[in-house]
Amino acid sequence: MPTIFEIKEQEILETPILLFDCELRSGQHEYWATHEVTFAGNVYLPTLMEHSQFDVRAQSEDGIDAAARISVSLANTDSRYSQIERTTGFKGAKLTLRFVFFDVKAGTAATEAEVLFRGVANAPESILESKIRLSFNNRLNFQRVVLPEVRIQKRCPWLFPSTGAQRVEGIAGGVRGQYSPFFRCGYSAGEDGGVGNRNGTQPFTSCDYTRASCEQRGMFSKDSANQITRRFGGVEFVPSTILVRGFGEKGSQLSGPIDNEAKYNDVVPLIYGTAWVQPPVTLARNDGNLTRMEVLLGMGEIEGVMKVVVNDVEIPLGENRRDMTATGWYNSVSPGNRTGGFNLDFADSNGNPVGDPYGSMAFLSVVVPNRVHEGRSLPRVKVLVQGLKLPRYDEDENFLGLQFTNNPAWVLLDILRRSGWADSEVDLKSFAEAALYCDDPVQTLDLHGNPITTPRFQCNLALRKRRSAA
After folding, report:
1. Residue 44: CA atoms inside 13 Å, Cβ hemisphere, count?
2. 58: pLDDT confidence band, cut at 50, 70 and 90?
3. Which of 1, 124, 131, 392 makes the best surface tag, with the fewest CB within 10 Å?
4. How many C-beta atoms lie closer than 10 Å to residue 1's C-beta?
């Protein structure tokens, strides 16, 4: 079958047709066109009276040439669409607009279809006896998406699976994998391979996103079947006040947590490649000799930490069975996968952890002596991080797994998928080809003038403030 670009060069063309596929919130599909045609087994009704001229923004603030908004008028003499608005409603419906050259006489498509627009419906602009007017905003508009997408907050930010289909998707993310909105919570009680507690004999269908509800549903630490979960993404733990006595002091005194209310509404960083970052310190407490802290590195699974500097003093990695009181130490508690971890620096008298698990977030435990930080305020912490492990594909679009990379092609693909794009909406082969080009070794000089070989392009980026995905 010839392509659209081949057909359009001919002197005599087949009929160009726009095919509108509107999926309502109920799952019902409505098909519209200017001609009654059958395409891909679906009958498109000739109810399309007019559509607005596409508003294409060349080199716009959106960062991409695309239709930002369209509107259509549909024939409504039989009140078909008025009835749909009364029962289901058009607002929130998903529209896919395709262009195709059609052989109307033969009743077959002359070319493959090209997707021009994907949008989300607004409420009807007008409903008359003869027609109804609908408008759709581009759902792939980067201006509508902000990154980093997660804020530091007391309640869990992950979306709770409330239906059977959502719980099945929450097991491994379905076709979207780790980009599924239900993957990070992953509550899937009652499903094969699922985790979580039931509400009697039936799964829970709602959650208020508090720590208590997470514990009730078995997703805070482990469920009733003793399966490790640790999915809670809220930051609400505040350590209790303790009685301490510093070295050389005769008396004891109360030491409470260092005030850190400013952490809420800050964003959880996104780190691509290798970068220095000043991560938020979510809690800290001095025990008289040492200040113990939890440092939130970023969203998602990262490769690891290379250096930690507190108040301009480098802190070494913790070693078992070695007294590191004089230097301080740091340990990675969770690398950022959806099964988090607990910091044992904050535990009850029985040694059970009482803090937050930071599901789907990477965080550190950092301990420094008073000579580095006296424990009266929050310290200045800098961390050199090897950032996110990203999905990679070969030129045949086969998934190669998650791997640490600072290749700009895989960084861009991750941003697109975080912005709502599905695999079916991107050309994975082109990303694989671009990634190979970016990885080509080139000869250059290092900072000291020595010849070295390095990849053609790299992306090392730490996002600490919210910006549009554009």
Report:
1. 26
2. very low
3. 1
4. 9
